[in-house]
Amino acid sequence: MPEPVTGRAGPWPLPRSGEACALARRAVRHTLSRWGLGDLADTAELLVSELVANALRHAQGPVHLTLVRGASVCCQVGDGSRELPRVRRATADDEHGRGMSMVDLMACDWGADRTPWGKEVWFSLPAPAAPLPAAVVPAPAPPADERD
């Protein structure tokens, strides 16, 4: 089995403004396309928007985005709060509280780690392995009646 392609992009600082989610989505789409993983972009954009919006709503201090590629693609959003996110069960009338449930449903894994400056919330999506080189297959012999 081939080794997974690895890479890292970022960290990109994000403004504490309404344009942060759009900047994060563009960075994710561009990076995944460059890595040949454009098929993951729609899901990754949606989930990174949730993490960035949560960071802007619930945390103080700088917000940044990092992407890491290994056996999976990991999107990490760092902020200045040490309070870890949790999946909540929103009622039909709740205006908020569904974001981490969506991350939990759509990502293959997610979590949060405290850092010296706050925390990083991350999710991962499966990254297909690099394609194997095409095997050299000899051409089949022509049928017996076409020989000679």
What distinguishing features does this structure have?
3 helices, 28% helix
Residue-averaged pLDDT: 83
Individual helix count: 3
What distance lies between the first and last C-alpha atoms, to the nearest angstrom? 42 Å
Give the topology string: H per helix, E per strand.
EHHEEHEE
Shape: globular
Percent of residues in β-strands: 25-35%
Classify the helix fraction into a percent range: 25-40%
Strand adjacency order, main sheet: 1-2-3-5-4
- Which structural class fits the helix and strand makeup? alpha+beta
Instruction: Detail the poorly predicted runs.
Output: none
Let me know the largest β-sheet: 5 strands, antiparallel
How many extended strands?
5
What assembly state would you assign to the polypeptide chains in this entry? single chain
- Estimated radius of gyration: 21 Å
Characterization of the model:
The chain is α+β, with helices and mostly antiparallel strands and 148 residues long. The protein has helices spanning 20-34, 41-58, 99-106, and strands spanning 7-14, 63-69, 72-79, 109-115, 118-126. Strands 1-2-3-5-4 form a 5-stranded antiparallel β-sheet, covered by helices on one side. Strand 4 (109-115) and strand 5 form a beta hairpin. Helix 1 runs antiparallel to helix 2 and helix 2 runs antiparallel to helix 3. It is globular.
